[in-house]
Amino acid sequence: MTELWSAAIGAAGTLISYGHWGRPVLVFPSERGRAWDFENNGMVDAVRGLIDEGRVKLYCVDSYDAASWSARDLPLEERARRHGRYESWIVGDVVPWIYRDCGGPAEVITVGCSMGAFHAANFALKRADLFPLAMCFSGNYDPSVWHAWGERGNEAYFNNPVDYVGHLAGDHLEWLRSQVSLLLVVGQGQWEDTTGALDSTQRFAALLAERYQARTGRVGPRRASRLGVLARRVRPPPAPLLLAPFC
To answer: What's the Rg (C-alpha) of the chain?
Structure first.
């Protein structure tokens, strides 16, 4: 366990690493979560084989949602502005630490569930040079529906994938198509319905399919175990793979 100071936040955030070698995987917790949640929820044990074989190395970090996206007393633009502090910590402090731990620069996978899925996708799309593959599970990708209020400006726009992906074009879009891949997975049930994850994932998948010319598909219960194979990719696929819904 490591405490990494953030000048932007004015406090230290926790980073916990698992493994001795392999492709670095940056794990975002669910809303307002902590770095140890991934292990406490059994997810580290679920991929223990990959860790022990030296195929992946996990880097689990704290969230900053309580002071940003989850602060409902703040207008959405201010929440997005505060998220910029977290982005500064991840890009300016966490990624360099991962590089040092890996012995040099490396392509980092982002992974997250719930709001962590939003972070995984948003960071990958905004910084595809650092994060060429995102695995996103049961996320909601539209902050404008998160009890949002107030006028929306550039900060909110450029941190809302549902907004900015729809306007991608030209050379930057072509570069993203060649650089970054996303795996979207969502279930069907009370949790996905109450959080809006199912609807949001379907909308986001359709948007990405339109802009990215991506592959989409459904996975039935008998094929659900194949998700484990997909999640074990250690190299990004040649084009974004969107599974929506996972049911």
So the answer is: 17
Distance CA 60, CA 36 (A): 7
Digit-coded pLDDT (tens) for 54-80: 999 999 999 988 888 888 999 999 999
CA distances to 21, 34, 138, 196, 199 from 193, in Å: 38, 24, 10, 5, 8
Give the torsion through C-alpha atoms of 227, 229, 230, 236, to 10 deg.
Answer: 170
- Angle (CA) 114-136-101 rounded to 5° is 105
Please check whether the domain covering 2-246 is classified as CATH 3.40.50.300.
Answer: no
Cα 184 from chain centre:
10
Question: Nearest to residue 186, comparing CAs of 136, 236, 119?
Answer: 136
Amino acid at 192: E
Q: How far is 169 from 167, CA to CA, in rounded Å?
A: 6
d(CA 95, CA 127): 11
Cα–Cα distances (Å) from 219 to 95, 97, 98, 177, 224, in that order, read 33, 37, 34, 24, 6
Provide the percentage of residues in the chain whose pLDDT is more than 70.
86
